[in-house]
Structure formats: C-alpha cells, structure tokens
Write a structure and sequence with these properties.
This protein has 2 domains: 290 residues, Aminopeptidase (3-Layer(aba) Sandwich); 122 residues, Alpha-Beta Plaits (2-Layer Sandwich). The chain is built from 12 helices and 18 strands. A 6-stranded mixed β-sheet has the order 1-2-6-3-7-17, with helices on both faces. Strands 11-13-9-14 form a 4-stranded antiparallel β-sheet. Strands 4-5-18 form a 3-stranded antiparallel β-sheet. Strand 1 and strand 2 form a beta hairpin. Helix 2 packs parallel to helix 3, helix 3 crosses helix 12 and helix 4 packs parallel to helix 11. The model has no long low-confidence stretch (mean pLDDT 97). The structure holds ligand BES and manganese (II) ion (2 copies). The site of ligand BES has 15 residues, from loops.
C-alpha cells in the first residue's frame, strides 16, 4: 500500500495549507455575530469536497446553520460509508491567553509534536479531523482506488447541541443510507499508543437562577437579615454530592450500568500514568467519586459539574451589595442507560426541593443528549483497528471517553447504524481551550489510517 504513503508525502504541504485556509474562518456557532462567517465556512467545505472529487454537493439549509452533504456513489452494490464531522468551532475566549490569534493559524513545534502542530481554534475540534476524511477521499479518487461509496455529512451546529441535525437525519433516511458511520472527532491515548473511542457520554446541560430580594441591596443595611442568593446557590450546589463524591440527586444512579470486574480489568489495561496526568495539569492530587479510578471516573461514571457561576458585583474594586440574583450553568455527563430527559427532570425536582423559602429558583434546561457505546466485534471496528495496526504498527486500545457527541446516539436510533469513533487528537491538544492545536503527524497519520479503513471495510464486508 505504498501508494497511500506516496500520495500523502507528495501532497502533504498542500494538505496542511488547505487546512490552514479553513482554520482562518471564524465559524463560531455560539456567537450570532459570526453568522456570516459560519455560512461562509459551509461554502468553503462544500468547495473542498467538490475539488476532492465528490458529487451531489448540497448545502442543506436548516433553521440554524447549514449541513453540507456530498457523496460519491461508485456502484450501488458496493458498501457505503457515511462520514460525519462538524465545521463549527467553540468561541476562542479568553483571547488574552492565546499566544497567537485563534484564527491566524501558525505552525509551531512542541515537545509532544516534534513535527509541528497547527495552532488555531478548531485545529483539532473538528476542522483538522473532518478534513482528514476529505483528503483521504481525494487520495482514493485521484489514485483511482476508492473501493466503496462515500457520503459526507458535515454540520455547523455541533458545538451548540446539533439542534437541527436530528430533523435532517429523520427526513433524509434514504439519502443517508449506509453500512457504517465513520467519525473523527475524538482522540487517541498518545502518538505511541493508538486507541479507538468506544463510548461517549450523554449530557444534560442546564442553567439555574436563584432570586433573593427583588433588587440589589446594601449589604450592611440588609446583610444577615435576607437571603443572599449567591450564598444560597453555593449551599445548594454543595448539596449535590456527598463526602464520597456520589451525586445525591434521588434516583440519579437508577439504570446506570455497573461494569463487571472483567470489564473494569479491561479498562485498567489501557496505559495511564496518574503522575503524568497530575503533572500535566499541575495538580497535587486528583479528585472524584470514591471507589473508582481516574479512567473509570471519566469513562464509565456519570458526573456533575458547575461550568460557570455568576451574580452580584465582579467589577474593579469593591461594591457592597447583596445581589438580587445568582446563576450557574451545570452539566451532568451521563452513561448507559441514563436518559438526559429523565436526569434533567430529577435534577429539577431535587433542586426545587432543597431551595429554602427565602429564595425563588428556576431551572432552565439547555441541550442534552444520550450516551453511546460501540461494539468492538463489528466489521467496522475491525476495519478501523486493523487500519491503525497497519499505520501505527500497534493494535489500538478501546477506550471510553468522557466527552459527548450527542448526535451519535441519534444516528443509531434513526438510521440503525453504529458509528466508529476513529479520532486522532491528543488530550493535550487543548480543544475548547486557548492555544488549541493539532499535530501535523496526527493529521497525516489520520489521512493514511482512514484510507486503510476504507480498503479494510470493503475487504471484510465481502
Ligand atoms: N469533539 C468533541 C467531543 C469529544 C472530544 C469527545 C474529545 C471525545 C473526545 C465535541 O465537539 C464536543 O465538544 N462536544 C461537547 C458536547 C456538545 C453538545 C457541545 C462536549 O463534549 O462538551
Ligand atoms: Mn468536536
Ligand atoms: Mn467540541
């Protein structure tokens, strides 16, 4: 299969510069100020697919941002792979913590990426990763070796909950018909230890509002005599977990699938160094639910975290005030078989039940999603695993991730298809953080591995 390596070697500079152009577009789906840029990015994705050799290119408008569809049907009798990715990115804030502009990509070498990495918002999540599929597809078209039909579905609302993709999938089941779904929007353990993500967490995300007095008050004249909503909110948040870091929302763990000892031993086989983990985050100790390892806490146990909390005076200097309101954004990451709808209901009921009479509370649900686990005995998994065996010289380890791609469970429900999560990012690539980057080694290795996936899948499907 030297032609794969050869094509990549000959074209790698162009592969990198094309990605850099895509990364210059600030396609921030969360911020309406960037509406034009998100639409422009959809056009750029469509053009790149056209240039690579795809057909039937469509920019499918939705109530929100468009979904880019394209395909190449070689022959109806051949298997079909559906590729999913997202061209939208997270907001780059806080801007002052970036060493270079988030939309002015630069290549820099790091200890972990001696061949260089591209620094830009979306470099790893997910522009750099879905673009590997565009380039692997180009490779197979240009070398006339595409062994199967390919369909692309690249959306622009993943980072804000994929609100319109569900309807699109439900209304286009025939168009999206395939034998397997392939997604690169996750990571590997390290460049020496390839892995395949076999689980994603579900998500219940909500905002709470606590109201005390009907206006901000002088904290001397009223302090100690009326409820301070920030103090109350902190007390209520503290009541979410016990001293063992178990979540104490009633029935929160109902339906949670407990893993067998054998399954837990499997998880423990994945290489993991607690001391390196702590060092990388500058922590003296880790924290979490007692009775579980760090890998288990992130991979198989549900969690609850405050993502943001605000209220009162946070400006320069001091202002003596008891605020009228306090807010927090809270996420719960869910595991099989928890339902985000049920968990949101349980949270709301509990939150209301622990609110003292001195305040009013409101819970506003945001987006959610169901958890996902993928089998490791499918043809698609084997095709991915063997592809990595070929390109890394090592068999990849299956790993359950703490991250969420809510649409993956919906694909299973609506299309009856499992997804293979063949991602190539590293935890240290700083997705959603300042200085996000993606290794050039990872990018090129991904293109190579995906090409092998197509070949393997068709071979095993026969
Ligand atoms: N690509 C990530 C999810 C991810 C990253 C999974 C790394 C596994 C490993 C995705 O873009 C993402 O950020 N998802 C959000 C949820 C979404 C509803 C905003 C998340 O996990 O917070
Ligand atoms: Mn992503
Ligand atoms: Mn993301």
């Amino acid at each position: 299969m030297d032609y794969i390596k050869n094509y990549i070697n000959k074209n790698k500079d162009r592969f990198v510069s094309e990605l850099i152009e895509l990364l210059k577009i600030p396609s921030i789906s969360a911020d309406p100020k960037y509406k034009k840029e998100v639409f422009f990015c959809a056009d750029a994705v469509a053009n790149s697919l056209k240039k690579a050799g795809a057909e039937n290119i469509e920019i499918c408008n939705t109530e929100g941002y468009p979904i880019v569809y394209a395909d190449k049907i070689v022959n109806d009798k051949l298997p079909t792979i559906l590729i999913y990715g997202h061209y939208d990115v997270q907001p780059p804030d806080p801007l002052e913590l970036w060493d270079s502009g988030p939309f002015e990509p630069v290549i820099k070498k790091t200890d972990i990426h001696p061949d260089g990495a591209i620094f830009a918002r979306g470099a790893c999540d997910d522009k750099g990763q879905f673009y590997m599929h565009v380039k692997a597809f180009e490779l197979m078209i240009k070398t006339k070796t595409l062994p199967c039909n390919i369909k692309f579905m690249i959306e622009g609302e993943e980072e804000v909950g994929s609100e319109n993709l569900g309807d699109f999938v439900r209304n286009n089941k025939e168009k999206l018909k395939a034998d397997a779904i392939l997604i690169s929007d996750t990571g590997i353990i390290s460049n020496d230890t390839p892995s395949i993500t076999t689980g994603l967490k579900g998500l219940s995300y909500l905002e709470v509002e606590v109201t005390g007095p009907n206006r901000d008050l002088h904290s001397g004249l009223y302090g100690g005599a009326v409820a301070n909503p920030i103090n109350i909110l902190c007390e209520m948040i503290a009541k979410m977990k016990d001293e063992k870091n178990h979540i104490i929302i009633p029935d929160f763990y109902e339906n949670v699938v407990e893993l067998s000892d054998i399954e837990r031993k499997e998880i423990a086989r994945a290489p993991f160094s607690l001391s390196k983990y702590k060092d990388a985050l500058d922590l003296s100790d880790v924290h979490g639910e007692s009775g579980y390892t760090t890998m288990e806490r992130t991979g198989i146990r549900p969690t609850l975290d405050v993502n943001g909390i605000w209220g009162g005076y946070t400006g320069e200097g001091a202002k003596t005030v008891i605020p009228s309101k306090a807010y927090a954004k809270i996420s719960m990451r869910l595991v099989p078989n928890q339902s985000d709808f049920e968990i949101t209901k349980k949270f709301t009921k509990y939150f209301n039940s622990i609110a003292p009479k001195s305040v009013k509370v409101e819970v506003r649900p945001h987006h959610g999603g169901e958890p996902y686990v993928s089998p490791i005995d499918s043809i698609a998994y084997k095709a991915a695993s063997d592809a990595m065996q070929t390109t890394y010289g090592k068999k990849p380890v299956p790993v359950r991730s703490g991250g969420s791609i809510p649409i993956v469970a919906l694909f299973e429900k609506e299309l009856g298809l499992k997804s293979v999560l063949l991602g190539f990012g590293l935890d240290s690539d700083a997705i959603h953080s300042p200085n996000e980057h993606y290794g050039i080694f990872n990018y090129l290795k991904g293109i190579e591995t995906i090409s092998h996936f197509f070949l393997n899948f068709v071979k095993y499907k026969k």
